Amino acid sequence: MTRKTLIVDDHKLFLEGLRYVLSQIPNVEIVGEASNGDTAVEVAQNTHADWVLMDINMPHCDGVKATAQLKKINPTIKVIAVTMHDDYSNIQQMIRAGVDGYVLKNTGSSELANAFETIEKGQFYSSPAILDTLLRRKTATTAPARSAYHLNPIELLTSREKEVLPLLVEGLTSAEIAERLFVSESTVVSHRKNILHKLNLKNTSALVKYALENGLVQP
């Protein structure tokens, strides 16, 4: 299936480079370009794009606002943040806006192709540098506040489920997790279902975002 892709950045030189990188990836069709968030939302609707490669810092309407608007209009659209910035604040804002993946601007065609494939499987994709930034963030600054009346969601998980959770965040398959933990693949699938149920999440992509946002993954 062709990935109808919109590329968004306020630097023409980078857009040219991104066009070249995308030309190396099978089944990608560039259907439009935009230099700011407002235009991106309009072009995405007009071209029926199902993928957007989104810069963050742009004039008029930045990538965070544009991503939130696109997801509100079309929840199925896939947005990959493409940026030079790997600071925690930017990453968190894009995750809250609903971004499906996050790569740096020095990303090559092989990694970007991997990002497409990972997201198509329903998983959140992150460049190694981005994931490192998130996992190094102190849990104390991101963990949900405890309450005498509300149980911390992580306390709902069994010890084995807590072992499975970070491996899911890393993007490992059920087979790979089973091999690492010396259990059956069906057991891992069961743990994954239980984790999603306990945390009231729909899929692994939502689980990754939730874990990163709430400090459920230890550095």
TrEMBL record:
Limits of the Response regulatory domain: 4-120
Gene Ontology biological process terms in this record: phosphorelay signal transduction system; regulation of DNA-templated transcription
Pfam family, one: GerE
Any one Gene Ontology molecular-function term assigned to this protein's record: DNA binding
Name of the protein this chain belongs to: DNA-binding NarL/FixJ family response regulator
InterPro entries registered for this protein in UniProt: CheY-like_superfamily (IPR011006), NreC/VraR/RcsB-like_REC (IPR058245), Sig_transdc_resp-reg_C-effctor (IPR016032), Sig_transdc_resp-reg_receiver (IPR001789), Tscrpt_reg_LuxR_C (IPR000792), WalR-like (IPR039420)
Annotated keywords: DNA-binding, Phosphoprotein, Transcription, Transcription regulation
Domain named HTH luxR-type: residues: 150-215
Entry keyword rRNA processing: no
Alphabetized Gene3D superfamilies for the sequence: 3.40.50.2300
Modified residues (4-aspartylphosphate): 55
Source species, domain of life: Bacteria
Signal peptide limits: none
Lineage: Bacteria, Pseudomonadati, Bacteroidota, Cytophagia, Cytophagales
